Automatic annotation (TrEMBL):
Cellular location(s): Nucleus
Keywords recorded for this protein, A-Z: Initiation factor, Nucleus, Protein biosynthesis, Transcription, Transcription regulation
Record's keyword annotation contains Nucleus: yes
Claim: Transcription regulation is one of the keywords in the record: yes
Family: Belongs to the TFIIA subunit 2 family.
Gene Ontology cellular-component annotations: transcription factor TFIIA complex
Record GO terms (molecular function): translation initiation factor activity
Name of protein: Transcription initiation factor IIA gamma chain
Record-linked PANTHER family: TRANSCRIPTION INITIATION FACTOR IIA SUBUNIT 2
Transcription initiation factor IIA gamma subunit N-terminal domain segment(s): 4-49
InterPro entries in UniProt: TFIIA_a-hlx (IPR009083), TFIIA_gsu (IPR003194), TFIIA_gsu_N (IPR015872)
Protein's GO biological process: transcription initiation at RNA polymerase II promoter
Origin superkingdom: Eukaryota
């Protein structure tokens, strides 16, 4: 999972994903177009947070063990803070 894909786990990202899934299931949207929408969402969220948000947060955590895969480590940390991240 790329870093910018973390925004998909936000409330708005999950709602967008659910809506796109429903639209694909109902034949309103093609799967390819749904993926393009998610990629644009990722880019737009990254750009908006870089240019429009002035506040900064630093989070320090102690990870009990580090796996061989850096993505699993990031996922572990994000799972612990997922309920605290609000956009």
């Amino acid at each position: 999972m790329a870093t910018f894909e973390l925004y998909r786990r936000s409330t708005i990202g999950m709602c967008l994903t659910e809506t796109l899934d429903e639209m694909v299931s109902n034949g309103i949207l093609s799967p390819e177009l749904a993926i393009q929408v998610l990629v644009q969402f990722d880019k737009s969220m990254t750009e908006a947070l870089e240019t429009q948000v002035k506040s900064k947060v630093t989070i320090k955590v102690k990870v009990p063990s580090v796996g061989f895969d850096s993505n699993s480590c990031i996922s572990c940390v994000m799972d612990r803070f997922d309920s605290h991240i609000l956009l």
